[in-house]
Amino acid sequence: MIIFAGRSNVGKSTLIFRLTGKKVRRGKRPGVTRKPVEIEWRGKKIVDLPGFGFMSGLPKHVQERIKDEIVHFIEDNADEIELAVLVVDGKAAPEIIERWEKRGEIPIDVEFYQFLRELEIPVVVAVNKVDKVKNVERVVHFLAEKFGVPYSEIPETFVPISAKFGKNLDELRRLMEKKIRS
Ligand SMILES: Nc1nc2c(ncn2[C@@H]2O[C@H](COP(=O)(O)OP(=O)(O)OP(=O)(O)O)[C@@H](O)[C@H]2O)c(=O)[nH]1
C-alpha cells in the first residue's frame, strides 16, 4: 500500500491523477477529500488520505477528528504501508510552519513526517506547486531543517514537483520506486 498524505488543498488528488490516471476525488465540496479513498494501480493499493490541517469552514473539533482518523488509519495499516508520499505546498508551507512555531506549536507537517518515520514507514516528500516558488532549493532546505532530515538525505527524501504542470513527476516516480520496501 502507498499512502498519500498532506494538508488540505496541497494537490494530492491532482498528483494521484497525474501519476495513475485515476480520479480519487469523491467529495462534494471542491478541495475536500473526507475519507481515505483507495484505488488499485498496477497491482498496488493507493490510498488518498483526507487532507489534514486547516480547512476553511470546518470547525476545529472536526479537523481534530479527521486528524485522529488519519493517525489511526496509518497505525492500523502500518505493516502494510510500503511508502508514504507526504505532499506539501511548496509555496505556502514555509509561512505556515513559521506561524505555528511562533505560536509555540509543532507544525502539523513536521509532526506528520516524524510520526511516519517513527513507524519506520519510508517517506517521500513531494514539494508541490513549485511553479509558484521562486527559490525552490531554499524551500527544500528549509523543510529539511524543520523535518529533521539530514543534509545528505535531502535528495532521497524531497522532490520538488508541479502536479498541475506535470513537472518532475518522473523524478518522483523514480524516488518512489527506490524507496518502496521490498
Ligand atoms: N499552481 C499549482 N496549483 C496546483 C498544483 N497542484 C494542484 N494545484 C491546485 O491546487 C488545488 C487543490 O488541488 P487538489 O488536488 O484538489 O488538492 P488535495 O490535496 O487533493 O485537496 P483535499 O481534497 O483538500 O485533500 C487545485 O486548485 C489544483 O488545481 C501545482 O502543482 N501548481
UniProtKB/TrEMBL annotation:
Matching SUPFAM superfamilies:
P-loop containing nucleoside triphosphate hydrolases
* Record protein name field: Probable GTP-binding protein EngB
HAMAP family found in the cross-reference section:
GTPase_EngB (MF_00321)
Cell cycle keyword on record? yes
Coiled-coil intervals, chain numbering: none
Can you tell me which family this protein belongs to? Belongs to the TRAFAC class TrmE-Era-EngA-EngB-Septin-like GTPase superfamily. EngB GTPase family.
Per the entry, what this protein does is: Necessary for normal cell division and for the maintenance of normal septation.
State the encoding gene: engB
Q: Which UniProt keywords apply?
A: Cell cycle, Cell division, GTP-binding, Magnesium, Metal-binding, Nucleotide-binding, Septation
Q: Residues in domain EngB-type G?
A: 1-182
Signal peptide span? none
The keyword Chloroplast appears for this protein = no
Q: Which Pfam families match?
A: MMR_HSR1 (PF01926)
Q: Which NCBIfam families match?
A: PRK04213.1, small_GTP
The record's section on PANTHER family has: ENGB-TYPE G DOMAIN-CONTAINING PROTEIN (PTHR11649:SF13), MSS1/TRME-RELATED GTP-BINDING PROTEIN (PTHR11649)
Q: Which GO terms describe its molecular function?
A: GTP binding; metal ion binding
Q: What GO terms in the biological process aspect are recorded for it?
A: cell division
Cofactor(s) annotated in UniProt? Mg(2+)
